[in-house]
């Protein structure tokens, strides 16, 4: 039934058995195995290509499987014929290859009953997903008979008994999630037998006994979650192979809270260089926090609360520059809190409560700009609250109660938090009506102030000092301003003389060799004639400034040449110089370009000025984008610089917002959207360039450009071969290709085995190996973003539909992208709130 030539290209059952093929398979099922959402009909899942009749043995096994389950809602009624439908897609939850079952996927079906041991007969089974049912009984030990088993998702059921050690016989096991069941017994050593295991979640059960030391040697394990069990003993100090540096360890999450662990926190944890989250809270760990924790440079979450830890906070903790949460509350830690914690700029939660910390509250904590929650209650801190807290606006949970603090509470804190945040500090004042601070002395004339008032007196002297400082500062500012004015005058004078010098030197052939002047070719330009028109923006230069700027060629296109021009004052702009005879007449050009110059949107490259030279040369001046184009950002970089999904999605949404503005607000067709003319600013925000240029061209030039799209051909909608005129839907096609480019990391201009990118993606998806299309870099986070990848892929394929009418419009694209990943980063918020519509 599938006769396409792509069929064998990625057919995993094809004879070739090299490593690459295996690596592909490894990635293949990552998402499918991890995500409950893959259960919804995914991309291309309607197309079941495997029409082969199910094998007798698999048919009998499925029958046995059905018999032992209780199916109150009748989902398995579709398993009714004598096996013909099993592999043709009419049996719910089954996928086959060559007549053998490879996937059983039946979550949220209300099943009870048990999982039959006959499951072990399904020799090709890769994935067993029955999570979120009411299934009881034990985990079949026959799972160990399945050499291809990769994923087992049985979480949120009522399974009891223990984990069958035979699971260690599945050499390809990648993901095992048995969380939230009623499982007991110890965790078998063999569980770490698979060298592919990267996801192990046994949380919310009643497992007891120790952590198998074998797990601490695993080089594949990435997520380990054992929280809420009854595990005990100490944690082996052999993480990362003990002291031996024996490989690359991938562990990112180590979650062991709410167990009965004892002993010290092992120092070898410091060798887990990828660790992002560690939670050991609610156990009985004792001893000091090892200094080695400070080497975990990627750590974002550190929770050691509610143990019996003692000693001081290691000074190395202030090296954890990515940390957002630090909770060591409810331990026996003592000594001072180090000032250096203020270096943790990303910290948003800091909990040190219920310890024996003494000394002062470090002023630097008041300087952490992201801090939202600070709990220092129930310690032995003394001294005043640092005034740096008077600028601490981000806090919304604050507690310093039950310490030995004194003096006035900074106004900001006193206004924001009620007295339960401050009580239990006998000498603290000013945080409620019943704790007024001693009133300040009425005048400067107080000579013999009582001891209690010494505090206030001190403060008043300080404020006198402040006044002097402010006066001095004001004077300084006046002086500096004067200096600046003088300086600017001087520079202006020198600049004009230098500019004329430059022009002279170029004419005499003594210019700067590696660069050329934008206006160089045309003699006599500059003050001699020509017209420069500015649109709104921060740049102020004259025609002469522009023509005398040093310029490097950045690229050439069908429209002309683009230069990076550096003006005399050091500012940089991008200048587009049109090829001769392709633009409209001067008058038409001017009126069209004036329209384009009014467009202002955070995701459009702003046109700042245009210049019409006396001999008909035409220049457009744009903001210069230091990060270059999306194409080079994606395809020209070292293998060590990964681009994460969040960044790619932000770019995709930016492009969609820009296109939305063009299509719906300005009624403009881009006509030429490629990753080469999506530029990136210093914060990697997408800026669409080259929009509306067709309005400046003659009709002949335009159809010529469409026909000879050259390097951009990969982005050209198929109908343009005949139509010759771009429209909204052909823009959407190009946008779809950019989405595919972001997802796959492949350029539409390089065909894959003679197949174009959209066809390649569609063919892979059709064979249900969807995950193979994604950029390998993105698969690292497949567990969390898999859903978003799939939905974005679905949208992208919708956009590149061969039939223009089937493609969505830009509003739908934007809306769907925002639904797929609604969280805006703070950067996005800033740009979208500063949107300027002309
Ligand atoms: C089997 O079930 C499907 C779906 O429930 C139904 O369409 C079909 O007619 C049934 N076939 C038989 C032989 O009962
Ligand atoms: C671990 O796997 C190997 C084969 O990969 C097998 O020989 C061995 O018995 C397994 N160990 C356990 C404890 O299951
Ligand atoms: C493990 O499973 C539990 C319960 O199903 C869930 O809350 C937790 O987030 C999972 N752990 C990880 C690391 O995803
Ligand atoms: C741990 O074991 C104790 C008895 O030893 C039991 O009361 C408790 O419920 C168990 N906790 C969990 C989470 O299984
Ligand atoms: C970590 O912190 C310690 C003590 O504060 C310091 O000596 C060391 O240089 C730091 N290491 C790095 C890599 O910053
Ligand atoms: C806190 O920030 C202010 C202003 O940025 C700075 O003057 C002060 O030195 C900082 N204090 C500490 C302790 O880092
Ligand atoms: C609290 O700190 C003071 C010194 O500031 C010390 O004398 C006292 O013993 C400490 N109290 C406790 C309970 O640690
Ligand atoms: C409170 O701090 C003062 C010094 O500021 C110290 O003399 C006193 O002992 C402390 N009180 C307690 C109960 O720790
Ligand atoms: C004080 O604030 C806390 C939370 O900030 C709130 O839960 C509590 O009800 C407040 N108490 C009073 C007496 O207002
Ligand atoms: C502050 O901590 C104390 C002691 O744990 C507690 O009683 C109080 O409710 C807390 N206040 C707030 C606002 O959380």
Please sum up the structure shown.
The protein is 25% helix and 16% strand.
List the helices and strands and how they pair.
Elements: H1 19-34, H2 56-68, E1 69-70, E2 94-97, E3 100-105, E4 112-113, E5 127-129, E6 151-153, E7 175-177, E8 199-201, E9 208-209, E10 223-225, E11 230-234, E12 253-255, E13 260-262, E14 277-279, E15 286-287, E16 301-303, E17 308-311, E18 325-327, E19 332-336, E20 349-351, E21 356-359, E22 373-375, E23 380-383, E24 397-399, E25 404-408, H3 411-416, E26 427-429, H4 454-507, E27 516-517, E28 531-534, H5 543-548, E29 550-556, E30 560-566, E31 572-578, H6 586-596, E32 607-612, E33 618-623, H7 630-635, H8 645-665, E34 678-680, E35 686-688, H9 699-707, H10 720-723, H11 728-744, H12 757-766, H13 782-799, H14 810-820, H15 826-833
Parallel strand pairs: 3-5, 5-6, 6-7, 7-8, 8-10, 9-11, 10-12, 11-13, 12-14, 14-16, 15-17, 16-18, 17-19, 18-20, 19-21, 20-22, 21-23, 22-24, 23-25, 25-26
Antiparallel strand pairs: 1-4, 2-3, 27-29, 28-32, 29-30, 30-31, 31-33, 32-33, 34-35
Bound molecules: 2-acetamido-2-deoxy-beta-D-glucopyranose (NAG) (10 copies).
Pfam families: LRR_1, LRR_14, LRR_8, LRRNT_2, PK_Tyr_Ser-Thr
Keywords: Leucine-rich repeat, Membrane, Repeat, Signal, Transmembrane, Transmembrane helix
GO molecular function: ATP binding; protein serine/threonine kinase activity
